[in-house]
Amino acid sequence: MADLDAIESRELEMDESDMQCEVERAFPYSPQAGLFFNMTHEERIDSDRRSIYVGNVDYGATADELEMYFNGCGHVNRVTIPYNRFTGHPKGFAYIEFSERESVRTAMTLDETLFRGRVIKGKWKSSSMG
């Protein structure tokens, strides 16, 4: 019983990053999708500059729904929805990677719009605009 208490105590102490499990939906028509781990440092920086963080995402949202919502801003390479590995529940945010940097500018117009009944919050790095 003491071991179970120790395990439960350790789980509570874990940093959120330790509990993160990500599910990615790489779109088959994208030549860059699924290649993130084979990228050079410079390629990863470029990928970050073509990506956005979207907060307050409905927990039932799928990668396909997010791709459709943001596809009007430009071609979407990848949608990443982080999940808690212990509960299996989504964390309520996502990352969207576009093919072109200009798509990030266009996606800004969707900040504070309704997606699945929730007002989404977009965050873009200032380096994304460079």
Write out key terms for the chains shown.
Alpha-Beta Plaits, single chain, alpha+beta, 7 strands, 130 residues, two-stranded antiparallel sheet, 4 helices
Quick recap of the structure?
This protein is α+β, with helices and mostly antiparallel strands. The protein is built from four helices and seven strands; from the N terminus they run H-E-H-E-H-E-E-H-E-E-E. Strand 3 and strand 4 form a beta hairpin.
What does this structure look like?
A hairpin with an 8-residue loop joins strand 3 (76-84) and strand 4 (93-98). The protein is α+β, with helices and mostly antiparallel strands and 130 residues long. It has a single domain, classed as 2-Layer Sandwich (Alpha-Beta Plaits), CATH 3.30.70.330. It has helices spanning 2-13, 41-49, 63-70, 102-107, and strands at 20-26, 51-55, 76-84, 93-98, 114-115, 118-119, 121-123. It is built from four helices and seven strands.
Global morphology? globular
Integer average pLDDT: 80
What is the architecture at the second tier of CATH? 2-Layer Sandwich
Q: In total, how many domains does the architecture comprise?
A: 1
Provide the CATH top-level class. Answer: Alpha Beta
Biggest beta sheet summary: 5 strands, antiparallel
Task: State which percent range the strand residues make up.
Answer: 25-35%
Helix and strand arrangement:
Layout: H1 2-13, E1 20-26, H2 41-49, E2 51-55, H3 63-70, E3 76-84, E4 93-98, H4 102-107, E5 114-115, E6 118-119, E7 121-123
Antiparallel strand pairs: 1-3, 2-4, 2-7, 3-4, 5-6
